[in-house]
Amino acid sequence: MRGAMRLPLFSRFSLVPSVGISYSNAAVVTTEPTTFAIYGNLVPGTFEHTYTFSTMAVEGGMEARYTLFPFLDVAAGVGSFITTSMYGTHDMTITDPAGVTFTDGSSTQRRAEGAIPERNTFVPFATASLIVPVKVSKWNVDVEAGYRTTLTSMVSTATLTTQQVFARIGVRFDLASIDEAESPYETLRMPTTTPVLEPTTTPAPVLPTLRTVPTTDIPPSLPPLAVVAPSRPAPSVLALCNVAFRQSNGRVSERGVVRMERTLMQTIDHGPNDAAISRIDTILRADPPIVLLRPLVSTDDSVARWSLRIVVSDTLLFERDGLGAPPREIEWDCATISRSLFELLIRDSAVVHVDAVGKQGGKAVSAPTTIRLVEGRRMASLDTSRINVTIWGYNVNAVDLPEWARTTIRSLRRAARTATSVSIYGSADGDGERNVNQRIAEQRAQKAATALGQPNARIDIDPIPSAQAVRNERDRRIRIVLRK
Predict the structure, then answer these.
(1) Residue 209 has pLDDT above 70, yes or no
(2) DSSP labels for 299-324?
(3) Is residue 223 reached through a cis peptide bond, with omega within 30 degrees of 0 on the bond before it?
(4) CA-to-CA distance for 135 and 101, rounded, in angstroms?
């Protein structure tokens, strides 16, 4: 609904300032290639993501209107939305191959629904339109068709612009008019001020009339009336995740890919029945080495808990969770990727998911965010800036550093004191519950940091195998990376 005032400047030219309230809907459809495992075979497939956005806004603007003929005006102008609310949904559909469904048997799932965070309050737009003034009985009516496009993104966390082809009808009330002799056409009357009111497409609901009854008219034998309030729906929750990349020099870029290449590096491998073996081995190196994950959770309610996962196909690469609101930024060190996952990652991109639950039961699952990893140079170069140490063969559920590994740890203390950074990654086998295995892996890394004399070292967790994997003592390990 909009109100406008037409202000004539010349015989054919006028300005039209306007203000109003608008409600709009928009939809975006994207596709995502993926791979399904069907009876042990990898089959290419496609996800279709459908995003809908509903926006309530106060809008204001200024149009320049020119009369070409008595029956045709042209108008162009600019304005701005002041968005008061924005609501969105995200549906995910398996479109290819045919017959593949989600675990609940459906081919489409609602992944997110709720208020969209980080909306831009002021969104400028531009319009152009053709207007045909007609006379309907005693009413002066403007029939308008035009085009409108936003000049900036509707949200600050992504690029979301809208283009609209619109048609609207306005009723014009002439408050005053100029002399007909001043008009270039005898039949044209230019109003001095012309407010244009555009009715809403949906009429206001008609409420029934309620009759109040004095308390003296109610017999004392009747019980008092009970007022039943409608149940309040669970507050809406919406989750998103942005991705950035940190270079080795600390510079952060908002877009890009991770380039994986093989490099030669000094490695130390120490198991329970062998002496520590030092050699030059082929290790994967990532450029940029750090992916910055920035989860965004918006809710009408306080966030009770959240989780963030990075998966490729059915393999979990990275996981973080916690209570309350998520941190602003989470680092994923791509050096944690093993060579066994390298070929899978080159063929199928890593995907980030953020889940959130509000304290009153609202839930959300973010749209998948893709991190592309590509293969770099195949020729292995020598990296002398890092040392990679692996100590494996922990007893089941043990977190203390094994006695036979303390000699290796003592030999690394001097190098650790002069290193520019120390990272320690814990791991566990896939037997048992995943949250227990993650806690064991983290405690192993913390115990190793204490033994190394580096209590402030970066602590992280290597990817833990699935529960269906065969138990392997090499998965019960710690990995230490020293950067000189």
Answers:
(1) no
(2) ESS-EEEEEEEEEETTEEEEEEEEES
(3) no
(4) 57
Q: Where are the domains of the chain?
A: 2-198, 235-261+283-377, 393-484
How many CB atoms within 10 Å of residue 460?
Answer: 21
In the beta sheet, which residues pair with residue 320?
308
Distance CA(347)–CA(292), nearest Å, equals: 22
Distance CA 89, CA 43 (A): 29
Do the domains at 235-261+283-377 and 393-484 have one common CATH topology? no
| pLDDT tens string 142-156 | 899 999 999 988 877
Determine the Cα–Cα distance for residues 438 and 425; give it in Å rounded to an integer: 11
- CB contact burial 410-441 (16+ within 10 A = b; e otherwise): eebeeebeebeebbbbbbbbbbeeeeebbebb
Which candidate, 330, 331, 326, 327, places its Cα nearest to that of 357?
326
Residue 195 zone, left/alpha/beta (φ > 0; ψ -120 to 50; rest): beta
DSSP letters along 358-416, please?
Answer: ETTS-EEEPPPEEE-EEE--SS-EEEEEEEEEEEE-PPTT--SPPGGGHHHHHHHHHHH
In the block, tokens 């963030």 appear at 308
Asked whether residue 191 carries a pLDDT value surpassing 70, the answer given is no
Residues whose CB falls within 8 Å of the CB of residue 271, separated by 6 or more in sequence, listed in order: 392, 393, 473, 474
Structure letter (DSSP) for residue 12: S
Where does 393-484 sit in CATH, by number? 3.30.1330.60
Q: Are 196 and 168 in contact (CB under 8 A)?
A: no
Instruction: Tell me which architecture the domain covering 235-261+283-377 has in CATH.
Output: Sandwich (2.60)
In 202-303, alpha helices (H)? none
Q: What is the pLDDT of residue 394?
A: 92
User: Could you give the CA distance from residue 471 to residue 450 in angstroms, rounded to a whole number?
Assistant: 27
Instruction: Residue 33: name the closest of 50, 21, 15, 46 by CA.
Output: 46
